[in-house]
Specification:
Elements: H1 4-14, H2 27-38, E1 40-45, H3 50-55, E2 58-60, H4 62-71, E3 76-80, H5 83-92, E4 97-99, H6 108-111, H7 115-124, E5 129-133, H8 138-142, E6 146-148, H9 153-158, E7 166-169, H10 172-182, E8 187-188, H11 201-210, E9 215-218, H12 224-227, E10 232-233, H13 236-245, E11 250-254, H14 259-266, E12 271-274, H15 294-303, H16 312-331
Parallel strand pairs: 1-2, 1-3, 3-4, 5-6, 5-7, 7-8, 9-10, 9-11, 11-12
Bound molecules: 1,3-dihydroxyacetonephosphate (13P) and iron/sulfur cluster (SF4).
The site of 1,3-dihydroxyacetonephosphate has 10 residues, from loops.
Length: 334
């Protein structure tokens, strides 16, 4: 018998409901039943494990997921991604239950910008507009003027007057790339993603020599020397679309390896090679994204826990810059 009260207190320690799942259960079927019963929608990022991608109602990048969260009519959102993404869904849906299967699914990039330290940085540049990448905490969002994602960052920066001074946080790699393609001189916060900083220049160069016809495609969270080699740079959705539209048969992919599942599904006749990390670990798999499992997804739907809860004043403050992002994205049809 499951003692749910004990389990709830355990969530604080473990981040998830640690309830054993009968291995004989057909979880795909059970999750479908729960979806209907609870009028729930499963939103998944491309970096989720394959089973989760296969059962999700919508798979997308950070922008697509925020847009889906904004328009869903479901009563409950099961967010299979990381904490800042589920928080964004909650900010947009205060009346709905937003469930994250494992609350410890964080983000190294988001962690690299503690709101208290960022406040001091922002105070040094009082006349600057703050454009913040969505990979940040709700507290950081509340300190921002506009949120952006890797899909719409260029459009958002281009929408500001050319002489407007800007702070960009928290990703220094994306910020440097944006400075380059927009001709701005934004002040950059010194944060980064542990997954996108792991790629080995030497190994990618060797791979390119071995696969001379392969296109090298990269996410803009990668470091400058990696991006310098890329035939195409874009968000996860951008990379997926490029791999479908380009006539090449081989692609070396520099982002989290989960995206390859959708690439391969869309183009079974093409070859996708994950860009190698600089040691023999599996570090091109995001350890936070991969904390969500099919079992945790099932349990979290069944017990409707762990739930994203937030302070209402903070939510309202964080919603403003997200609404601005969604408005600009609608205007540019992104
Ligand atoms: P996008 O979803 O915008 O491609 O960003 C990738 C990422 O690192 C999400 O954590
Ligand atoms: Fe954060 Fe990087 Fe993982 Fe994305 S891949 S969730 S940016 S740590």
């Amino acid at each position: 018998m499951v003692d749910i009260n004990t389990q709830i207190s355990e969530i604080n320690k473990k981040g998830f409901l640690d309830i054993e799942v009968n291995p004989a259960l057909d979880l795909f079927k059970e999750i479908e039943i729960l979806k209907k019963e609870k009028n729930a929608i499963i939103l998944a990022h491309y970096y989720q494990e394959e089973d989760i991608q296969d059962i999700a109602d919508y798979i997308g990048d950070s922008l697509g997921l925020a847009q889906q969260a904004e328009k869903t009519k479901a009563d409950m959102i099961i967010f299979t991604g990381v904490h800042f993404m589920a928080e964004t869904a909650k900010i947009l849906n205060p009346q709905k239950k937003v469930i994250l299967p494992d609350l410890k699914a964080g983000c190294s990039l988001s962690d690299s910008a503690p709101a208290e330290l960022f406040k001091q940085f922002k105070n040094k540049y009082k006349d600057h507009t703050v454009v913040t990448y969505i990979n940040c905490s709700t507290e950081m969002k509340a300190l921002s003027d506009i949120i952006c994602t890797s899909s719409n960052a260029k459009a958002i920066i281009d929408s500001l007057p050319v002489d407007e001074p800007i702070i960009f946080a928290p990703d220094k790699n994306l910020g440097a790339y944006l400075n380059k393609i927009t001709g701005r001189n934004m002040k950059l916060w010194n944060g980064s993603c542990m997954v996108h900083e792991i790629f080995s220049l030497e190994k990618i160069t060797k791979l390119k020599i071995r696969h001379p016809k392969a296109k090298f495609i990269a996410h803009p969270e990668c470091e400058e020397h990696i991006l310098a080699l890329a035939d195409y740079i874009g968000s996860t959705t951008g990379l997926l679309k490029f791999s479908q539209q380009d006539t090449s048969k081989e692609f070396i992919v520099a982002t989290e390896a989960g995206i390859i599942h959708q690439m391969q599904k869309a183009c079974p006749d093409k070859t996708f090679i994950p860009a190698p990390p600089n040691n023999s670990c599996a570090c091109n798999n995001c350890p936070y994204m991969k904390l969500n499992t099919l079992e945790k997804l099932y349990i979290s739907m069944k017990y409707e826990l762990p739930e994203i809860i937030m302070d209402e004043d903070l939510r309202i403050a964080a919603k403003k810059p997200i609404d601005r992002m969604l408005e600009i994205s609608r205007y540019y049809n992104l």
